[in-house]
Write a structure and sequence with these properties.
Elements lengths: L1 H6 L19 E11 L5 E10 L1 H8 L16 H11 L6 E5 L2 E2 L10 E5 L2 E14 L3 E6 L6 E5 L5 E4 L6 E5 L6 H7 L1 H5 L13 E6 L2
Parallel strand pairs: 1-8, 1-9
Antiparallel strand pairs: 1-2, 2-6, 3-4, 3-7, 5-6, 7-11, 10-11
Length: 214
């Protein structure tokens, strides 16, 4: 489970332990993303809000005691958020971008990341800053797990928001096509176990956000 565990912190203990022949993916995440622009019109950061499926949400928070009348607060969930963010570094935080055809370098998230639970759903909120803010006419953002252990889906409503973007900038969301259960089973668990952070397999299932600015 080495590669799978690295994909998203605690995932090494999840479903695959009990069913080694089960198909990928094992965890499902609904994504809302914000592209944050500086006052001069340059893109400065990508802010993510990941809502995990109910099964993983229950697994990840099992045994945690809420300090707010039994309800879990962000402080209660801080260790969980920390281990997730630290584990995501090897995977470039599942966030890849290019601007006007050139790859965009990202920095590590600042310490304001946090996790929260609402209606039984665990959500991880974090920001990936650009190493150097930039202005671009064409921005291409991809969100995916190269091992496809985690399946990302853009939210049905308001999946992308541009924050302080220059006038005329417009986002275009291209959701992942996804993989059928039969396709996943035909590849087999051993195929997926051989994938790692440098694999390109998951890129074909990327959610893409294209932003065109004047």
């Amino acid at each position: 489970m080495k590669n799978c565990a690295a994909s998203l912190a605690l995932l090494g203990l999840v479903l695959a332990l009990g069913s080694p022949a089960s198909a990928h993916p094992h965890v499902w995440v609904t994504v809302r993303s914000e592209l944050v622009y500086a006052s001069d019109g340059s893109l400065s950061a990508i802010r993510h809000h990941w809502a995990f499926d109910d099964m993983f949400s229950a697994f990840a928070t099992e045994g945690l005691k809420g300090s707010n009348n039994g309800k879990l607060t962000s402080d209660d969930l801080a260790p969980l958020a920390k281990v997730n963010i630290e584990s995501l570094k090897e995977y470039s935080y599942f966030t890849h971008a290019s601007a006007d055809g050139h790859k965009v370098a990202m920095s590590d998230p600042p310490p304001d990341y946090r996790a929260e639970v609402k209606d039984g759903i665990l959500t991880l909120n974090y920001t990936v800053p650009l190493k150097t803010p930039l202005k671009a006419k064409d921005l291409h953002l991809e969100i995916y797990d190269p091992t496809f252990f985690v399946d990302f889906e853009m939210a049905k409503t308001a999946p992308v928001r541009l924050v302080n973007a220059p006038d005329g900038c417009k986002p275009n969301v291209q959701p992942s096509v996804g993989m059928t259960a039969n396709q996943s089973l035909s590849l087999g668990e051993q195929f997926f176990m051989a994938l790692n952070a440098k694999s390109s397999f998951g890129e074909q299932f990327a959610n893409r956000i294209l932003v065109r600015c004047p």
